[in-house]
Amino acid sequence: MVDEFRARWGAAAAAKVLAGEVVLPDGTAVTGDTALPAGAHVYLYRELRDEVPVPFDISVLYRDDDIVVVDKPHFLATMPRGRHVAQTALVRLRRDLDLPGLSPAHRLDRLTAGVLLFTTRRELRGAYQSLFARGLVHKTYLARAGVDPNLELPRLVRSRIIKRRGQWQAVEEPGEPNAETFVEHLGDGLYRLHPRTGRTHQLRVHMASLGLPMVNDPLYPDVVDVAPDDFSRPLQLLAHSLAFIDPVDECPREFVSRRELSTGQRRSGASDPAAITARLRSATVGIDTLTTHRS
What is the rounded CA–CA span in Å between residue 92 and residue 204? Predict the structure, then answer.
């Protein structure tokens, strides 16, 4: 094992083996003489890099015994991944709210702000995650982009989006569509987006494919290098609202962001339960007849 770690990750990784910091699934420490067959699993805690603090607070929109709904700021990842660990919404909220069992029911990109739902206990996680997986959550986003007077809107954008490991951008490819976004222009470059699927970077890819890349997007259509401590140009994309029928008490719920996009107008408040239920029912039917398909 020490030879394997040294060959793959260098002397520092080999030192972890010799220090007893690499363990087998049963917790037994790997030693310098340990030999394992191909495909075996070992575990270790990697050293955390210094992270640039994200200088924005997380506002709690709603909290009860089962769920916590927050208004995530731009630049804060939902959960630990890659170089972002402590500076994530999950880690911050677990500490601030003293909820070690907190878990996200879905995910927002690091650069996207807005409404984010967490469950407070492990046994609840599956029920709420299933709502998102089954498309039973009505999601509304707001975005700012340029204006093309020749582009016919509203429309339903459909395409096949693939995100490959190791590549910054997701790409559209020929084939059966796996991503759908309903796009409306509210005027003055403000767009309302209703994703009917949840592919990686879906909204950003679809807007760029229409020739309307979002303001301050560092990935689409072109990759722009942004310093880790540069918080001056937030992506103009906001997860504005979530509406769903609660799987625990079967009550209709809607949560609305209090954040604003640059030069945008504040939109807040929530519909009454009957209106939420009606919108959830209508969101799954009839939309194709009002839109233009794009393949």
Answer: 27
